[in-house]
Amino acid sequence: MKRVPKPVFFIVALLILAFASTAIFGVSYYNGDNKVTVIKGVNDIRWGIDIRGGVEATFKPAGDIDATETDLDSAKTIIETRMVSQGITDYELYADYGTDRIIVRFPWKEDETSYDPKEAIDEISATAQLTFRPGNSYESVDLDGEGDIVYKTPTGDTEEILMDGSMIETAVPNFDTSTNKYVVSLEFTSDGAAKFEEITTEYNGKVVSIWMDDIMLSAPTVQNVISDGKAVITGDFTAEEATSLANKIQAGALPFQLETASYGSVSPTLGLNSLNAMAYAGVIAIIIIGLFMIIMYRIPGFVAFIALLGQVGLSIAVISGYFTVFNSFTMTLPGIAGIILSIGMGVDANIITAERIKDEFRSGKSLELAIDRGTKNSLSAIIDGNMTVVIVSLILLFVFGPTQILSGIFGPSTTGTVYAFGYTLLTGVIANFIMGVGLSRLMLKSIARLKFLRKKTFFGGAKNEE
């Protein structure tokens, strides 16, 4: 057996416990009355309609526009892109071609307090037409929710559109360390870069304002000719505002302005009180599983319990937005079921390994050889069992996910609760491979080198096998 240093167990175990605790509880502090979240935890998860309720709205084209099926499909796709970019995966979205209506249902935000459905749908239904215009003249001013001045409706020369958002390749939120402000970084297409170079050449030393629909976002003075196809939208943005603006630009503009025909709140089928009861039941279940593993398999069971906590933490982390590279994910009841099923598979993987080690003890192997052979012989069975689940999870993601890659085979479907089940099941299985297969074996080989624990009985062997 390849020797693993003794301290490895303690280092890995402490790292797993620290990670699991921060992933579950999060890290935050208060700056006055404002809560600042450093690391997202369970409380920052966006719960699905079935757990927390949400919003239902019916949109129609504003004015006397007679939308075609292509127009409605385009609007539907853009709304869908906006929701997915915000981590909303539990939604229902339909286009009624006969009445020119788009119907959508989606859950409340994780930090929602006012539960105002009109406010919740404004961001989804905004036209989001980004334009660059000469000058910065405007017709009226207003105040936003924070009391800041908002300049509305371009007038005069500013009514001319120099270029629009269709020439933008990517839009991402960033933090400008030189000004300590959030900005939106733009990268233009090849045609857009050439057009923007023309604009900055013609208006060098002059003001070119940037508008979202009829609201002026910023009015910078062109300092240089920009030929690299990159620009930055500045303003007094919060992190959320910069992210929201970038998502809208990236998703594109709706083909027509949407008007809300009707809207309302959707009641949850479960509710947060039932969710709390499920959480308590889950904690009790994990404790019972841990005691069972320790009683039945001793040290391998103890190591498996630590790995299990790490698996739970990792499953939550990829949902809550703990890792900034992953968007937060909408958690539904089937999503919770996916986590529970993956935990069961994690327990099963460690039981298979522990039983293989016991089999090696019965055949007379030494402690090191039994652990080495037991972990190797159990690996193929664990991989076979988990790979079948991975395949099923991928099918669920491709059929019920936003891409709907396999919808041609299985028929059209919408993103929703089944997608959440496939997502959490897949991430849970991956977490099992990392924690329950990789790190648990590393800890087991390390702890086996501690002199006072070098007895077969501590690793599941019979008393007469010392």
Give an overview of the whole structure.
The chain is an alpha+beta fold. It has two domains: 7-28 and 270-465, Multidrug efflux transporter AcrB transmembrane domain (Multidrug efflux transporter AcrB transmembrane fold, Up-down Bundle), CATH 1.20.1640; 49-266, Gyrase A, domain 2 (2-Layer Sandwich), CATH 3.30.1360.200. Helices cover 48% and strands 21% of the residues. The protein has twelve helices and 17 strands. It has helices at residues 7-25, 49-52, 69-85, 117-125, 190-202, 239-251, 272-297, 299-320, 333-362, 367-400, 407-410, 417-447; strands at 27-31, 34-39, 46-47, 54-61, 92-96, 101-107, 130-134, 138-143, 149-154, 163-164, 168-176, 181-188, 208-212, 215-218, 230-237, 258-266, 330-331. The protein has a four-stranded antiparallel β-sheet. A hairpin with a 2-residue loop joins strand 13 (208-212) and strand 14. The longest helix has 34 residues, at 367-400. The chain is elongated, with a radius of gyration of 28 Å. It starts with 6 loop residues before the first helix and ends in a 19-residue tail after the last helix.
